Amino acid sequence: MSGQDFAIGYGRGEIEPKIAPLVAAVRKAGFITFSSCEGHIEDGERGGLPRATSVSFYARENEAQRVHERFLRCRDQLACSWEFTARFVLQWRTDVWVLGWSLENCGIIEPGEPSYFLARTMNAAWKIDIPILIEMFDGMTDTTTPIAQP
């Protein structure tokens, strides 16, 4: 898998530009992604809820454990707090419930002006954290057995 086998853009089925490099790294590491978001400040500014930067992928428990171990090693370098969670998701092609994992930005760690929290969180995710997470997944490319399509 090339890692970059998707369209970049904001349309349905496209990967948003600021999260695309992380999606490519997750795929290059052998995982199949099923959801991603670069994060959106403007939703919060219009009265809606802002969208957090995130990437979701299918993984077996032992593979997710390796992702988590690598994540813990790079956590102190991250500007934001991230959560690594699992849930069962309905795989739309097979109509089967499978285990899906998500890395989601929970907010910038460094204190600052509350009115700029969302902007600071998104910018820190885009400029600091995504490159670190890409490197984290890039280091897994030699050891991950590709996951069959659920």
Overview of this structure, please?
With about 150 residues, the chain is an alpha+beta fold. It has one domain (about 20-140). It has helices at about 20-30, 40-45, 60-75, 115-140, and strands at about 30-35, 55-60, 80-90, 95-110. It has a 4-stranded antiparallel β-sheet. A hairpin with a 4-residue loop joins β3 and β4. α3 crosses α4 (about 115-140). Mean pLDDT is about 85; it is low at about 145-150.
Order of helices and strands: HEHEHEEH
Shape: globular
State the secondary-structure class.
alpha+beta
What is the mean predicted local confidence, pLDDT?
85
Which runs of at least 5 residues are low in confidence (pLDDT < 50)? 146-150
Radius of gyration: 15 Å
Helix share bin: 25-40%
Beta strand count: 4
**Biggest sheet statistics:** 4 strands, antiparallel
Distance between the termini: 16 Å
Helix count, per DSSP? 4
Strand percentage: 15-25%
Order of strands, widest sheet: 1-2-4-3
* Number of spatially distinct domains: 1
Describe the structure concisely.
With 150 residues, this protein is an alpha+beta fold. Helices cover 33% and strands 24% of the residues.
